[in-house]
Amino acid sequence: MSEADKPAAAGNLDSAPDSSAGAPAPRAAKGGSGKKPPLSEARRRENRRRFIRSALLATGVVGFSLLAYVPVVSAKGRRLRPPGALEEADFLASCIKCGQCVQVCPVEAIKLGDLVDGFGIGAPHIDAREQACDFSCDAVQCVLACPTGALVYSDKREPFLKMRDGVKLPDKPILKAKEKDADPRLEIRERIGVARLARPDACLAVQGKGLKGVARDGDFDGRMRYMDVDRWKPIRIQDHPYDLELCDLCVRECPIKDAIKLEPLTEGGGKRMVPKVLEGCVGCGVCEMICPVDAAAIVVDAQAEWKKS
Amino acid sequence: MKGRLLDQIMIMLGREPRKPETFTESAARIHLYKKTNKVDFEALKEHARAHRARVNSWRNRRWVVLILANLLFVFSFWLDIQILEGALTASRFVGFHMIDLNSALQVMLAHKHIIVNLLIGTVTIFILWMLLGGRTFCSWLCPYHLVAEWAESLHLRLVERKIVTDHIFHRGTRTVFWVLFSVLTFVTGYTVFETISPTGILSRALIYGPGLALGWIALLLLFEIFYSRRAWCRYVCPIGLTYGAVGILSPVRVLYRLEQCFHEGDCRKVCLVPHVLDVVIKGRSPDAEVPIGPDCTRCGLCVDTCPSGALTFNIKGLSKLL
Predict the structure, then answer these.
(1) Low-confidence spans in chain A with pLDDT less than 70
(2) Of B27, B85, B115, the CB nearest to A148
(3) Domain end among B245, B265, B288
């Protein structure tokens, strides 16, 4: 079919249909109008402008989305992820940002990232001082809820996924609350952080001080499960006052067996003790939440590795 | 017919619609009739215009569905009724995985690994939207679509008062975005698009509470009100293109009937994607009945607007079956 045989050009809206379709179409049949008419100068200018506008739009939107790199590469922004989280890069790649983990957490420990988290927007994290994960769900519900395996049980973890040495726990951690159950272990073998006595001078145990009253004052809203109160119903920490000769809350309330202990302070003698974090520490952050001094004497370093000292 | 589908796909990717080269016999007859009986045709047109009642029934139905679906997400969490848990990116409907196709694609590109759960949820959603019409997701479910629709009416009012003008972009930009975001996601290993996706941001804001990210939504809406009509949905959003591709063979579509059309163009004025309605221009319809292309969001605004019933919702094969 030669150029001239083609029916009327686009843009000629009123022209009749092709003659081959059975109806007479005088203008099209005569041919000659097959070639596209050259664009007018104004039209060409508008096309050029539209192209530049489109290129700017693409650059702008993609540029903005890449700004999200900034918080990710700055080491300051390390977030405490929920238990069973993959290593940060894999975690952010595989998390689909749906928040199903948020919905199942009985103590509402999990929050989602915002614009300031860059690529971590919509990805879950835990602010331990506000509300730590105390494993009061027993089965690590957030891992069960995760549809993409960004949070995953250790035995379901794909072998190709990297894991730094100091992240692997020596064994599956034993949950104190489940100690009398048939299998008291949690199905995870990776820590999400490591606790560290950041301000030993402020620690009540180090000072030899006790604690009478609530652990956290003001309008603190954090909750925790107390086995002697109700295994399945976490209560507000405010509703659970203490009367202790020597403060040992970080050890007493740690949900994991053999993760932290109190050691006597050799020098000075007397009843002064110091909390010592053990290799079993999962990094759940309960010690940071329960620490009665402000700011907390013991903190969790998110995504930190265990270093044998 | 095959050629036409390919044509519609190319138009979805960004090509300008063209006048068809061939017409079916019935289409040619109707075109010719309209041309040669101008007086009758005008009289019919006037009659239709006089009896025309402005209806919003499809729009209202759609808004109700969109709002209820999003509220179901919200209440599943707030009231703990657990019917639809998660957000639009991924959820469980009474326990069954439902995964947004574009989000799943991004996660797999970033993670470079196929996740079984993800695949199951994706297949469910793929079948659902393939049956319901692909971009039906956009207009019947996406919360950004709704707020953008409201921003659009503001924009149109400003345009009418000549306070702002609409700046159009090349529609192919969206295809470029789709490719760019896929490549970026694969290269960086981060779900780049998710960071700025107003669909995900709004869905999460509704369910889990507002955040700074809503500032980005506000910025987008301002851009659409003052600079370019429906810019995000028309020229940027890769989700729309993904679902558009899913809906290529969908049986649920809007059907155009040339015979009933007066070529007044009201439908194209209300349409989010007016290039799919190119066939309604006088002399452009290659057939007496043309299903509207895959880029159509099945929003029903044209069906509501059409004074003569030339555009209707239609399910392929259903009329034959009945």
Answers:
(1) 1-36, 75-77, 267-269, 309
(2) B115
(3) B245
Can you give the pLDDT at residue A265?
A: 85
What is the least distance, in Å, from the CA of B163 to any CA of chain A?
20
Q: What is the model's pLDDT at position A75?
A: 63
How large is the angle between the packed helices B101-111 and B172-188, nearest 10 degrees? 40
Q: What is the mean pLDDT of residues B276-281?
A: 95
What contacts A276, CB < 8 A, 6 or more positions away?
A260, A261, A262, A263
Probe site for chain A from B191, B212, B222 (most A CB atoms < 10 A) = B191
**Same-domain status, B185 and B236:** yes
CA torsion, points A129, A131, A137, A141, in degrees to nearest 10? -100
Q: Which two tokens stand for residue A100?
A: 């199903």
The b/e string for B19-43 (b: 16+ C-beta within 10 A; e otherwise) is: bbeebbeebbbbbbebbeeeeeeee
Nearest CB to B21; choose among A18, A96, A160: A18
Tell whether B122 and B6 lie within a shared domain: no
Report the C-alpha gap between B97 and B90 in whole angstroms: 8
Percent of all residues in chain B with a pLDDT value above 90, rounded to a whole number:
79
Quote the number of domains for chain A: 1
Question: What's the domain range around A112?
Answer: 71-302
Same domain for B268 and B229, yes or no, is: no
Asked whether this complex has an ipTM greater than 0.85, the answer is yes
**Biggest alpha carbon distance in chain B?**
65
pLDDT score recorded for residue A23:
41
Nearest to A300 by CA among A236, A263, A254, A262: A254
A6 touches chain B (CB under 8 A): yes
pLDDT value of position B48: 77
Least confident of A64-78, B147-161, B275-289: A64-78
Arithmetic mean of pLDDT, B142-158: 97
Q: What is the pLDDT of residue A77?
A: 66
Query: Where in the sequence is the domain holding B23, given as residue range(s)?
Result: 2-51+251-321
Our CA angle for A138, A140, A143, nearest 5°, is 165
B313 DSSP β-pair partners = B254
pLDDT at B314: 92
Say which residue the tokens 């990210």 belong to. Answer: B213
- pLDDT value at B181 more than 90: yes
Whether B94 contacts chain A with CB within 8 A: no
What is the spatial distance between Cα B132 and Cα B134, in angstroms, rounded to a whole number? 6
pLDDT (tens digit per residue) in B11-40 = 999 999 999 889 999 999 999 988 888 888
User: How far apart are the C-alpha atoms of B97 and B117, rounded to whole Å?
Assistant: 7
Q: Cβ separation of B89 and A158 shorter than 8 Å?
A: no
pLDDT at A59: 94
Q: Which of A13, A50, A64 sits opposite B169 (nearest CB)?
A: A50
CA A50 vs CA B25, B121, B291: distances in Å: 38, 39, 30
Could you tell me if B113 lies within 8 Å of chain A, comparing CB atoms? yes
Domain count, chain B: 2
B88 falls within a domain: yes
The confidence score (pLDDT) of residue B43 equals: 83
B177 in a structural domain: yes
> Full-prediction pTM beyond 0.80?
yes
Which tokens hold the place of B240?
């729309």
User: What does the pLDDT read at residue B111?
Assistant: 92
DSSP designation for B321: H
